[in-house]
Structures are given as structure tokens and as C-alpha cells.
Design goal:
- 62% of the residues lie in helices and 11% in strands.
- The protein has 122 residues and is mainly alpha-helical.
- Among the domains are: 3-56, YefM-like fold, CATH 3.40.1620.10; 68-98.
- The chain starts with a helix and ends in a 15-residue tail after the last helix.
- The model is unreliable at 1-7 (pLDDT under 50).
């Protein structure tokens, strides 16, 4: 995926948030920006109309960090489950006699239930 797509997705995520220019931050002061961030969730700081940063409260930042940690823990748990299942399936191939059973199965003649025709739908 190109970096332009990531930028577009990031900008789309900012739609609807209050914005302040860098000059507004200087003019209004940090306390006003933080009050807005705390009441609205975030403030997008722009420079010449382009988003350059997002101000969030410490509480919101911690909430986002906790959500990220929870998502990562879920992802790691699921990956662990998939690994365990894969090892269980793979272990079947190591059982005695598996190779002989697979050879017998593959060498068996196949009986088709109907005539095979190319290009026909069922």
C-alpha cells in the first residue's frame, strides 16, 4: 500500500474533530487547546490547512494505549491458538503408518460419479 493511501486514511480519521491552526495555538494558548481536547476528545493542529498533529489529553492517550495493548494481547492469543492447532494437525503426519496410509489413498483408483465435461455448468 502506498504512503499516499495511509495519509488519506489518516486525514479521513480526523474529519469531524475540532481544528486549530498553529497560529491559533499561540493566540488562544495551550490551556484553551487542552480544554477543547479534553471536552471534544482531540484537536487537530494544522499548518496552511494541512493536519500536522493531534492534541489529546493524557487520559485519552492512556485509553488509546490500553486499547492497543488489549488488541495486541488478543492478536497474540489468537496466533498462539492457531499455532497450537497447526502443531496438532502436523503431529498427525508424524504418527506411525501415516505415510503408508497416504500412499494407499493416493494410489487408489478414483471412480467418478458422472461424466466430466469441460465448459458445462452444474
Amino acid at each position: 500500500m502506498s504512503s499516499a493511501v495511509h495519509v488519506t486514511e489518516a486525514v479521513d480519521a480526523l474529519v469531524g474533530l475540532p481544528t486549530a491552526t498553529a497560529a491559533d495555538v499561540k493566540r488562544l494558548g495551550w490551556r484553551k487547546i487542552m480544554d477543547t481536547a479534553q471536552s471534544q476528545g482531540a484537536v487537530v493542529v494544522t499548518h496552511h490547512g494541512v493536519p500536522e498533529g493531534v492534541v489529546v489529553s493524557a487520559a485519552e492517550f492512556e485509553r488509546m494505549q490500553a486499547a492497543g495493548r488489549a488488541a495486541q494481547a488478543t492478536q497474540e492469543r489468537l496466533l498462539g491458538d492457531y499455532r497450537r492447532q497447526f502443531r496438532e494437525h502436523l503431529a498427525v503426519l508424524a504418527e506411525p503408518g501415516t505415510a503408508d496410509r497416504m500412499r494407499e489413498f493416493m494410489d487408489r483408483p478414483w471412480a467418478l460419479q458422472r461424466r466430466v465435461s469441460a465448459g458445462e455448468d452444474d
